[in-house]
Amino acid sequence: MDARFIPEPVHLIRFAPELLLTVFATLIMVLDPLTKEGEKHRLGILALVGLLAAAWGAAVAAANPGTAFSDMLLVDGFATFFRYLSILVGVLTLACSFAYLKREQADSGEYYALLLFSIAGQCVMVSANELIMIFIGLEISSIASYVLAGYLRDDKRNNESALKYFLLGSFATAFLLYGIAWIYGITGSTNLAEIQRVLSNRDIAPSVNLIGASAALMFVGFAFKVSAAPFQVWAPDVYQGAPAPVSAFLSAGPKAAAFAIFLRVYITAFEPIADQWQAVLWASALATMIVGNFAALLQSNIKRLLAYSSIAHAGYVLVAVTTHSQIGTAAAMFYLAAYAFMNVGAFAVVTHFARQGERYVNIEDLAGLGQRQPVTAALLSIFLLSFIGVPLTAGFFGKFYIFKAALDANLVWLTVLGLLNSAVAAYYYLRIIVVMYFHEPSESVADLQSPAPGIQAVLWASAAATLILGVFPSWVLDFAGKAALK
Amino acid sequence: MEFFIITGIKAALVAFVLLTTAAYLVWIERKVLAHIQLRVGPYRVGPHGLLQPLADLIKLVTKEGVLPAQVNKFYYLLAPFLAVALALVSISVIPFGKQVEVFGYKTYLELANVNLGILVILAISSVSVYAVALGGWASNNKYALLGGLRSSAQMISYELPLALAIVSPLLMCNTLSLREIAEAQAGFYFGLIPKWHIFQMPMPQLLAFIVFLIAGFAETNRVPFDLPEAENELVAGFHTEYSSTNFAAFFTAEYCNMVTISAVATHLFLGGWNPPLPEVISNWIPPAIFVGFSLLAFYHATQTSPTRPWDKYTFPVLGVVLLGLAGIFTLPLLRDALTPLFWFAAKTGAILFLFIWVRGTLPRFRYDQLMKFTWTFLFPVSVVQLLATGILVAIVN
Amino acid sequence: MDAILFLIFAAIAVGCGVNLVVQRHPISSALSLVGVMAALAVLYLLLGAEFMAAAQMIVYAGAIMVLFVFTIMLLNAGSERKTDKALFARLFGVPALIGFIVLIGFLIRTLLPKTENVVFGTFTEGTARGVGLKLFTEYLLPFEVTSLLILIAILGAVVLARKEI
């Protein structure tokens, strides 16, 4: 056998986070039948241990950067950043889930196993150096997400959510796969660096239209996964219907991983034809911001509002992708990390507040939260202010770096329109704060218990992270800047 | 051009032999079942009922072909055609013997020498589910539909252990071509034990052989897995509504599939055409068998009963024919061509006999037992034995 | 010879594909798809990808499509009902189709770079051995990770289909 194909130990080390996650997920599945009913949360603790182990694995892998398994994987700073982010989102989601699953009497090992598998898929995605690996990682993450979205099988909203997510998601993945097939047909390779090398070669200029077509097909797939316009329609229904912790997970983890592969593919493989796709991304970024923000103005359901806000934030990140510069990439990475914290935090409040069967998910139900539970309301306010981009919060520096990168790339109009959008967004975020503090308390807050320990931990951690990133952005930004793709 | 002529001749020959075998298999089955149940079996048409298959054929062809009301005509007629066509196609990749020389033209005793022989057989067997499922569905009859559904579920389920059982002999000889598989099993351990895969050292494939046979029974819808046509539950299952030639097509397909499965089992596990003993001895076994049978025929000629006056003449004729066959097998030139064919036919026949024997002995499974059996027992067993074989092969290499 | 076979089976594949859309009964559509798969398998064979051809038959025609047919039969899905087509479809359906085909034809003729003709029989890596070597050397990781994908699909099906959570 050819010696270069025999996996060396260092290859396994570079693949360590995925391996650890898979081992723990499988262990959970094996232990599930052996665990008594009512003690399933122990499996959740095991999942937490698995995530911490995976984080350790990611650190070990980061110490041994390079490619693995005949160039299928590439462990670099970029991959490590997103691996950490995915695992972190997993930890936060897990902490929210304990109380939620207990409340809905749906605690089972499969939930934790699916969560770990989904994160493993995201880790594969972000460290993939190859279109086939990207596709497989995306599918692992997506299929686990589809099932998680419909996890409470007897709940109609869950069913609707899972079915819509599954049907539209499969359709989008088919586009992505078709684009990959085209690219392979044109360049004869699925390796990103190799594709870039072939596309830089001016001898193949006649087929540049075909390359544009395949980039467009892949854009459809990616745009769906990051919920960018015009492929965002699934997001509100899915986030509204899915269990609240799962919505938090979907809008932070898989979305960040999808952005990671979006960035990697477009900034490495398709960089030579950047002048072709930049205009498309420009339009999509603008449309995404407008659709997200203006639709969010009309929402009365808080999960749906957060879903539209998630679309709008995807639009801001797309602005950073449009710049296709190193500083833009770093800005996108910073923004995704900041958004993950504030978003999971906001959804944690929803998880806590909605109570059994997710009865209280209207914005009006929050009325009086400021008096009844001032701490929770204050933390939610921090997240909402960070969404708006108020200084001293992570959201401020996120937006600041993105629009700075856009100005550096001469995207003046996109910057102006993006800033106007942020101003519109302030309205609906502030409305929630107004309802919480200044409206007459509704009966929905009367019997509200104090948050479960897990949710409290998530709230405090997210709020702390949001504020720290807002005061010392350089801690993450430096890492992102070093790790950003060139 | 020569290629087309030779292939045409071979195809016609194979189809003729296979269909005749299938027809006489029915006769043998009825006879054996009868003897198991202490009956006589077909006896009236020809000596010992030997012309019974012909009579059956004439009966089936001349009967009225009923087209029930409200059936989906196209699929109703497509199903039996599909069944018999696929059954005939799958036999085309099975080699029957070594290379032979006919009038100076060297050829292999097989229709198509395909590198992927075994995969082709798997592909065709997996597609032949459609015939049964469509036939059941198009008949517009609830029993037929249930039979068709049962059969598709059963065939899909049993295909897994079947395929896994096939893989382990493939691991040993490192090829997918049935010819090379058979050739790899030539030779003897200590000059005595044949190197067939069921005796293979260090990992005798006995378990894989048994799994293959069980799954093969299910794939061909034979007792004890004949749920698709369980007559006490479903009248006649998927072919309830079929009559005349359409019914004959299903019937033929079933027996052809039995022959195919037996032939594949022979190649994969029983050494194909390789003799069970070193050639010094084994070359004399076929003539000895024929001589023995001819002596038996001569003995019976002297024991005629008054009710059967013709036996006085037919038995000596049979004895002479058998002696002639024995003579042919001793001629050095023909012996080399025919002995492998003999051993191949003998092993295939033995497995076919097993099919009939089981039918005469075992009761039918219940449907849930059938499914439970394959998924919770047969499938894990085949996985484990494949793992064991794989590890041993890796160690030995 | 190869070219003739290619044309025949390509025509069958396209014909079955059109039939798949035109047919009203789900069973007919499903079986047309089987026809497409079988014709594709022959095309693979012509190109020298024999293992792919066999896998195409075993996996797609023999396993996946059987499940489709099985489900259609179990649900006893009837023929699709004919609807009054929308005004747009009635007026512009056929012209739009023709326009689309012309557009595609034009694009293929003008945009595609000059390619060499396929020579049948030049590709010899498509045997079981060739595919296996690729899968277990260069594509080892995707091959192994795919098993994870399948495991998750099974787990998901179990979660969504079992009796109680």
Rg of chain B from C-alpha positions? 22 Å
The pLDDT mean of chain B sits at 82
Query: How helical, in percent, are the residues of chain A?
Result: over 70%
E-strand count of chain B: 4
Task: Note poorly predicted spans of chain B.
Answer: none
- N-to-C SSE series of chain B? HHHEEHHHHEEHHHHHHHH
Can you give the mean pLDDT of chain A? Answer: 89
Can you describe this structure in just a few lines?
The complex is a heterotrimer of chains A (486), B (397) and C (165). Chain A is built from 20 helices and 2 strands. By secondary structure, chain A is an all-alpha fold.
Question: If you had to describe this structure to a student in words, what would you say it looks like?
Answer:
The complex is a heterotrimer of chains A (486), B (397) and C (165). Chain A has 486 residues and is mostly helical. Chain A is built from 20 helices and two strands. Chain A has a two-stranded antiparallel sheet. In chain A, strand 1 (66-68) and strand 2 (73-75) form a beta hairpin. Chain A is globular, with a radius of gyration of 22 Å. Chain B has 397 residues and is mostly helical. Chain B has a domain at 64-94 and 115-274 and 331-396. Chain B has a two-stranded antiparallel sheet with strand order 1-2. In chain B, strands 3-4 form a two-stranded antiparallel sheet. Chain B is globular. The mean pLDDT of chain B is 82. Chain C is mainly α. Chain C folds into two domains: 2-126, NADH-ubiquinone/plastoquinone oxidoreductase chain 6, subunit NuoJ (Four Helix Bundle (Hemerythrin (Met), subunit A)); 127-165. In chain C, 76% of the residues lie in helices and 0% in strands. Chain C has six helices and no strands. Chain C has helices at residues 2-22, 26-47, 50-75, 87-111, 128-136, 140-161. In chain C, helix 1 packs antiparallel against helix 2 and helix 2 packs antiparallel against helix 3 (50-75). The model of chain C has no long low-confidence stretch (mean pLDDT 84). The chains are: A mainly alpha (486), B mainly alpha (397), C mainly alpha (165). The interface between A and C is medium-sized, with 46 and 24 residues.
